[in-house]
């Protein structure tokens, strides 16, 4: 595996990266907002999945999460997701095998997600990440959610390493922007539903965990690759 000297940690998004949950999150938001009299198209919310709930609320219906209404919506949305959607969520192929391989290379795996802690724990179990994570960072440990860098910075502290000693794996432009703002290089996964052009800050782009697992011998951690050198889009 071509890992740069000094690399110590891999920071991992979960939703859309290790488990196929982005659509479920979007649907739970659409249904919850409808219950509160707000009609927001699925496509509009789907484009925001990867940001924290406070940003989704504000950008769609201009409601502050800290308001009483915002708190009620957020709690209802979390309950709906947990009860209706969480039981049917599945891991992406190769998720656990990829984590195991990275661990075998001596890398510290740290979850870096905007999800609530209870949801994060459930999703990690679905991903088969039990016992593989060095540390975990959830929404409660960051003042601002992605694409702000707070969660990435918190994950770095838990990994006990600097930005130059870590790499981020994520599936949304918000993961990549948060990593960039924390000076952490990143690779992108297509499995979350974004196009290559939207993931252009990534050093390389892969279909998902299984694809990266197969390509680990050529994993471009450093130096940064040009767009022409990226893992090509399947035809």
Structural features, described:
It is a single chain. This protein is of the alpha/beta class and 235 residues long. It folds into 2 domains: 9-20 and 91-229, HAD superfamily/HAD-like (Rossmann fold, 3-Layer(aba) Sandwich), CATH 3.40.50.1000; 22-88, DNA polymerase, domain 1, CATH 1.10.150. 40% of the residues lie in helices and 10% in strands. It has helices at 22-35, 42-46, 53-61, 68-85, 95-104, 117-127, 150-159, 173-181, 209-215; strands spanning 9-12, 108-112, 135-137, 166-170, 186-189, 205-206. It has a 6-stranded parallel beta sheet. Strand 2 (108-112), helix 6 (117-127) and strand 3 (135-137) form a beta-alpha-beta unit. Helix 1 crosses helix 4 (68-85) and helix 5 (95-104) packs parallel to helix 9 (209-215). It starts with 8 loop residues before the first strand and ends in a 20-residue tail after the last helix.
Q: Could you list some keywords that capture this structure?
A:
235 residues; alpha/beta; Rossmann fold; 2 domains; 9 helices; disordered C terminus
